[in-house]
């Protein structure tokens, strides 16, 4: 998915920049390319879909205000159907907009105007993290909720509620993952079984897709509710949900 930058001998992350403002799109594309990213552009949701159907990218940088489709809907589609990293770039700066962006599946959220060097570094680091999968050494630093209340899985609304009652809407893939892990909380679910349940191929690429899904879901929920989502990695086994949870 990524091009080799021969001048430095490293892989350049492939980025699709989706922006309907022609001048801004050209300016950002030129700047991101100068920072070592392999950039293609799209001016609408349709152009984005056409591009990634031909060749998936590592990262999509997505404007919300597009002419043909709501950017949040595009974000939700990408999160449910791809393993690409997703950065929202928008003029919308309200907290509610940020939360909607994260619950739609964004990994990062930038408000215009943005320094393209910062955007380039963020995209590069995100691509590297997704390629490497979750760092299990970071898991002990996450603090589990001290509340005695359980997490709640709302099947009707495809949402989880934190012990404090804060809801987070899930994509289809995220919902299926949580369902798979919470049938028997505290019991590890084998990686191979998860790949089959989530319709990933039992290959290295499929396994990386699963790890990326788990990693994004952890970040998304922690950003939305302010506490760690208790999906834990079980070495040489798979994943488990390590906290009480009830279903509605």
What does this molecule look like?
With 248 residues, this protein is an alpha/beta fold. It folds into 2 domains: 3-132, Rossmann fold; 138-247, Arc Repressor Mutant, subunit A. The chain contains 8 helices and 14 strands. It has helices at residues 22-34, 45-54, 71-81, 95-103, 116-132, 172-182, 191-197, 204-225, and strands spanning 3-5, 10-12, 14-18, 38-42, 59-62, 85-90, 108-111, 151-154, 159-161, 167-169, 189-190, 231-234, 238-241, 245-247. The protein is globular.
- The CATH class of the largest domain: Alpha Beta
Q: What is the count of β-strands?
A: 14
Strand order of the largest sheet: 4-3-5-6-7
Broad structural category: alpha/beta
What fold name goes in the CATH topology slot of the largest domain? Rossmann fold
Count the domains. Answer: 2
Kindly report the name of the CATH homologous superfamily of the largest domain: Response regulator
Q: How many individual helices?
A: 8
CATH architecture of the largest domain: 3-Layer(aba) Sandwich
Produce a short descriptive summary.
Helix content is 40%, strand content 21%.
Helix and strand layout, with pairings?
Layout: E1 3-5, E2 10-12, E3 14-18, H1 22-34, E4 38-42, H2 45-54, E5 59-62, H3 71-81, E6 85-90, H4 95-103, E7 108-111, H5 116-132, E8 151-154, E9 159-161, E10 167-169, H6 172-182, E11 189-190, H7 191-197, H8 204-225, E12 231-234, E13 238-241, E14 245-247
Parallel strand pairs: 3-4, 3-5, 5-6, 6-7, 8-14
Antiparallel strand pairs: 1-2, 8-9, 9-10, 11-13, 12-13
DNA-binding region: 143-243
Modified residues (4-aspartylphosphate): 63
GO cellular component, one term: cytosol
